Amino acid sequence: MTISLIIAAAFGYLLGSIPFGLLITQSAGLGDVRKIGSGNIGATNVLRTGNKGLAALTLLLDLLKGTAAALVAGHFVPELGLAAGFAAFIGHIFPVWLGFKGGKGVATYLGVLLGLAWQAALIFAVAWLAVAFLLRYSSVASLTATFAVPVFLHLTGRTDLAILFAVMSAIVWLKHHANISRLLAGTETRIGSKG
């Protein structure tokens, strides 16, 4: 089982580490997305290029790599799905190809959640959309949604997943430390802003 876990984690990490936001913007002739906005390779920063289609594609692909890792590995043994999903999330945030400087993991987090507990993915989506619509801050929406997920999983008796996603949520919050500082200072950019 140990070898299987290592293989599943390696598969998940390699899949998760594909920097779709960077590859898509470069392929579209928009240059290096790391040199605009927040410098992040995720969909929110891709949106700052002004191309909503590319941002949506980035979001979808970053999400699907988490889902694929969890579902493919979990097809063999459920525990392997947990390992591969978590590794895909880590791979997105710390991709070896970019000097371990990747995205904040929100889309991949949702993708892993979709592969492991689709009901909780609905909670995430509702929380994210509601906060984003009301406040127009992607960061606040992400922080709220990732807080809601482990609570929901715990309340519905999915202790194993609640622990896994509590760890993943803590990492997402840590990756948003600069956003939290800007929110407190009143300088955080809103959804749709190129700043």
Topology pattern, helix = H, strand = E: HHHHHHHHHH
Mean pLDDT: 93
Helix fraction, binned, reads over 70%
What is the count of DSSP helices, taking H or I runs of 4+ residues? 10
**Radius of gyration from the alpha-carbon trace, in angstroms:** 16 Å
The largest pleated sheet is described as:
none
Low-confidence stretches: none
Describe the structure.
The protein has 195 residues and is mainly alpha-helical. It has one domain. Helix content is 72%, strand content 0%. The chain is built from 10 helices and no strands. Helix 1 (2-16) packs parallel to helix 5 (78-93), helix 4 (52-74) runs antiparallel to helix 5 (78-93) and helix 4 packs across helix 6. The longest helix has 23 residues, at 52-74. It is globular, with a radius of gyration of 16 Å. The chain starts with a helix and ends in a 10-residue tail after the last helix. The model has no long low-confidence stretch (mean pLDDT 93).
